[in-house]
Fold:
Amino acid sequence: EIVMTQSPATLSVSPGERATLSCRASQSVSSDLAWYQQKPGQAPRLLISGASTRATGIPARFSGSGSGTEFTLTISSLQSEDFAVYYCQQYNNWPPYTFGQGTKLEIK
Amino acid sequence: EVQLVQSGAEVKKPGESLKISCKGSGYSFPSYWIGWVRQMPGKGLEWMGIIYPGDSDTRYSPSFQGQVTISADKSISTAYLQWSSLKASDTAMYYCARPGGKWGQGTLVTVSS
Structure:
């Protein structure tokens, strides 16, 4: 099983600032990496697939990069609605597809 | 627009059976893998299994093999997750999802005596 490790566990950032979230895979997942945002009481929302392709309707301030084992989600200028939990997930290797443990992005 | 719409919340007793559903629209349902993800209260996300509706090829996570059954009916673009005998520990939110793609809104399953 591929282990996905996200860092940091919690990130405190002020609105308008930049946030950088990291995700590391225990072995290569090529570019088969997705990022999701989850707010309390809501389903996860797809932000990025293929490591760097924004999903439909996702603002340009969200960007993804990386391949192989190292990935980054960057939010260029945080808005109030961006404070949430973010998960990375690999869909390269089954069984099973695996998620990171999540990064909680909180207001500083 | 791709949409996955799940059936409503369920409250069951231990030992009862249950089948929840997920209807896809806006894309060729038989042609894409679709799976189920569990989120226990206050916890992270776990893939349970995936199915290719075109030929019903089904794969389970080792943690869920034998515990649940995943199926699909491509004629009505619907995937299913079922239990034959629920336990209290099955209480969770269950999401259908396309790997690397869209998710359903979730189905809350509560198992309590």
Notes: The mean pLDDT of chain A is 95. The interface with chain B takes residues 32, 34, 36, 43-46, 49-50, 56, 87, 89, 91, 94-99, 101-102 of chain A (CB under 8 Å).
